[in-house]
């Protein structure tokens, strides 16, 4: 009995050892196959790094503002009797825009004129009597004061009539008419907007750390989305005296010649301030940059050797220092040499040493001044 048990246990140990040995060789074979496995190459596009001149400039988003802009309003209440302008017209300072009804004021003026003339006649008569000593000085002063009061009353009514003639306060371009004939206007009711379009201002904000690079007279170039070929060049004319506490930005104002009036108040523009001499840098499409908190990098295509010693085309990850951007391009200041082949699309799926297959039939956008189709 005891001998049979020992034989059974021995047989079981032999079977377990045999199974373990088989499994060991299977795992060893799988490990060998895994270590020699090379994943299929990733399809990417590439470009050759080239050294270029990169202008020193600061980009910002700005808004167009008129040098002088106002909504012309009624100074006094009244009924619109005459409209002498058309919407969108160019006018000169002092041109009549709207005439309010002044029939009542003209009637009052006629009465005041009669009273003024009578007061003048009485004053002359009283002056003669005073010279003869017939009337006292007090009576003469009273008549003289009445004459002056009558003249002032006439001037007041004339001023009221003039205030009912709404005129352009400065030269410029009118907007859309907001009044109609026969309409009753209260004091302050809008009549039409008036803007001076040449010259014109562009206001934009820059970070406070960039303020030291700017100065009055710096050249500014603006482009407006939706206006093909629209590019204007002006100069910085003023800086705001305070820094915005919420954004830590400073408002900058630039002045531009605008003879054709293509820049309009309220328009959205992109402003670029030239900061002087530029620098040499490698420009790459923004899609070539692998952005990361620990450092930005690019993938460089090189000839490599696999674990089996066979050569293949693979990528090396290289940390780079970036500069400014313009359009679709980003400036690489350090970490990249001219002539190196850089991956421009598909970087998100790469890792160091990964095999790649270059296909440059379709390249990502790489323009300093892109013109989107929907702009």
Key features of this structure:
single chain; 375 residues; alpha+beta; conserved putative lor/sdh protein from methanococcus maripaludis s2 fold; Elongation Factor Tu (Ef-tu), domain 3; Helix Hairpins; six-stranded antiparallel β-barrel; four-stranded antiparallel sheet; 3 helices; 24% helix
* CATH C-level name of one domain: Mainly Beta
What is the CATH architecture descriptor of one domain?
Beta Barrel
- Proportion in helices: 10-25%
CATH topology of one domain: conserved putative lor/sdh protein from methanococcus maripaludis s2 fold
Classify the beta-strand content into a percent band.
Answer: 35-45%
Mean pLDDT level: 80
Q: Which segments are poorly predicted (pLDDT under 50) over 5 or more consecutive residues?
A: none
Strand order of the largest sheet: 3-12-15-14-13-16
